[in-house]
Amino acid sequence: MQRRNLIAGNWKMNGLGQSLEFFEQIQQAVVSRPDVDVLIAPPATLLHRAASRAGRVLLAGQDCHAAASGAHTGDLSAEMIRDAGASHVILGHSERRTDHGESSETVRAKADAALTAGLVPIICVGEQEADRRAGREQEIVGDQLDHSLPDGGEFVIAYEPVWAIGTGLTASETDIASMHVFIRGRIADGAARRILYGGSVKPCNAASILALGDVDGALVGGASLKAADFSQIISAAG
Ligand code: 13P
Predict the structure, then answer these.
(1) Residue among 229, 228, 211 at smallest CA distance from 220
(2) How many CB atoms sit inside 10 A of residue 143's CB?
(3) What is the distance in A from the centroid of ligand 1 to the CA of 225?
(4) CB 33 within 8 A of CB 235
(5) Residues 131-164: pLDDT tens digits?
(6) What pTM did the predictor assign?
(7) Three-state secondary structure of 127-151
(8) Annotated catalytic, 160?
(9) Which end of the chain is more exposed for a tag (fewer CB within 10 A), N or C?
(10) CATH 3.30.1330.10 fits 5-236, yes or no
(11) How confident is the model over 206-224, as pLDDT tens digits?
(12) Residue 191, class by beta-carbon neighbours within 10 Å (0-12 exposed, 13-18 middle, 19+ buried)?
């Protein structure tokens, strides 16, 4: 089963100092890898402006509301994210599960809304450090998958162990490989689904992680803010 690699950058709540020349700066790496999909999730305030600069680079929102419209002050619907220029939306990131108390059921409702609006959800799962120490990582991730995924349609899964996010720690290649095999076996149409790894992916470790057979790309935080680093990660795609 041939699955295209996806190298995705999540800018999180950064962007004011982030020049949109970024898109021109990564252009050479993007053009030299026509076999790889490249995506950036800027803050929603930048989506519209980024859309005029992005070229072949796909754009994503970082969240959306489960409802199509209504009295939800401060929220954005999936259709609004799409209208601003995105084709994808990140859902269930651990920072939203923690900061906003999002349950897997909420993530699933948002994923359904995203599909209805024509967006491809990138659904994040991952265990806490204590879960892994207790040997419960598959139980936790399995439960998140069971309750976060829509019944069908196109979606991407990102495995992001929470303890590896922004810490400089990455899961070992053995642990990444075995979790990706586990995820593929747990979900419907597992052989066809793109499964990304996220958590301190950097130019120095990208090639070995992306070479793993069941890893179909990366969801990159900090290193996606620097065009040179992100370009190297694009070039390292397996
Ligand atoms: P870092 O690459 O900064 O660890 O962040 C990963 C992440 O959370 C991407 O969504």
Answers:
(1) 229
(2) 13
(3) 11
(4) yes
(5) 999 999 999 999 999 999 999 999 999 999 999 9
(6) 0.97
(7) CCHHHHHCCCHHHHHHHHHHHHCCC
(8) yes
(9) N
(10) no
(11) 999 999 999 999 999 999 9
(12) exposed
